[in-house]
Amino acid sequence: MKYCQRCVTPHSRPNIRFDESGRCNCATSDDKDRIDWDARERLFREVVENARRRGKGWDCVIPVSGGKDSTWQVLKCLEYGLKPLAVTWRPPGRTALGQRNLDNLIGLGVDHLDFSINPSVEKRFTWLALERHGAPAVPMHMALFSIPLNVAVKYDIPLVVWGENSAFEYGGEDDARRGFALDEAWLRTYGVTQGTTWRDWIGEELSERDMTPYMWPSDGELKARGILAIFLGYYFRWDPSTTYAVARAHGFRERAEGARTGFYNYADVDDDFISIHHWLKWYKFGFTRTFDNLSLEIRNGRMTRDEALRVLRERGDETPHADIDKFCAWLGVSRERFFEVCEKFRNPEVWSRRNGHWEIDNFIVPEWSWS
Ligand SMILES: [Zn+2]
User: Would you say domain 34-235 falls under CATH 3.40.50?
Assistant: First the structure.
């Protein structure tokens, strides 16, 4: 295993590129310093004016979870005079804190739709996605993409405002990370759908009618209707600690008990099952959500690499046992079966079997307990 010389991102991370000096495109933080953010803000004003001119009631759809980022998105849109319709895909593992923060977000002064998907379909789809790709969050990511776009089409709303562009924040190598529109090509590459669309899941377990909530309007239809989908992170400098501070000042609350997955106690707080999605990366690529979070801390100059390594060592094994129990209970499968399926996705290029257990060669933390 090889790692970035500057942060803790491994070479196994998908869509990442390393330069000759062994640094990953955590260099995007340097790129961000070179961006003329005032010019980007002026571009955003143009987007706003255009939406307000064309809006026949609501000017924009904001896909929201209730998290710090969506709270920040809503505040930005209100600040610039947009009239938003906030839309949520209701996660089956929504936490009490997630509901509280969502209620707080609505209270900022927006109309809101909470969209639930038939649990029977959602469970079948989730299990199938886990079995086929080791990616239980494919349904979630498709729902997050399709529901807001469909709402925009149905209510004739000219703008959809997404938050950060994960391709830009965490590395991605083609032009998509430079762009700002979110379309089907982006979804296939960065949307965590394993390169699939809703059409690929129709079969014995899921009928075409079952897939209705996951079907999104075509790029052609969005274009014909003049619906623009943007990432706010293209127009404003995106940093989790900033969005957190702003959201907190407006009623958002973090998790008092500490981080549920990863390093931040204010991220991934609204859903009990998101940790499962992040956890599978350990099998597939040999890193966890904490690696991503710590790399971001290093990039933003708030932590040294040595401090990050100390955090990883102190954390040790990060298997989210309690969440796995809840997830298995929801799906109606045993823990044994769950881990059996996870095991199928253990990457042999990352993991070696040694002394009766699995190990990562040249792991970033040398004295790691693998048993
Ligand atoms: Zn790096």
Answer: yes
* Range list of H helices, the chain: 28-34, 37-54, 68-79, 96-107, 119-133, 138-155, 166-170, 184-190, 219-224, 232-235, 240-249, 274-285, 289-299, 305-315, 321-331, 335-343
**DSSP string computed for 319-346:** --HHHHHHHHHHHT--HHHHHHHHHTT-
Positions in the chain whose pLDDT score sits under 50? 170-180
Contact 35, 310 (CB under 8 A): no
What is residue 31's predicted lDDT score, i.e. its pLDDT?
Answer: 67
Token pair belonging to 263: 């390093």
Dist. CA 9 → ligand 1 center (Å): 5
pLDDT in tens, 261-305: 778 887 777 888 888 998 999 999 999 989 988 998 898 889 999
pLDDT digits (tens, 9 = 90+) for 151-206: 999 999 999 998 887 655 544 444 333 444 566 776 776 667 888 989 999 999 99
∠ CA 177-191-47, nearest 5°, is 55
Q: How many angstroms does the Cα of residue 299 sit away from the middle of ligand 1?
A: 8
Note residues around ion ligand 1 (Cβ under 5 angstroms): 4, 6-7, 9, 24, 26
Neighbour count for residue 10 (Cβ, 10 Å)? 21
Q: 21 alpha carbon to ligand 1 midpoint, in Å?
A: 11
Euclidean distance between CA atoms 292 and 285, whole angstroms? 12
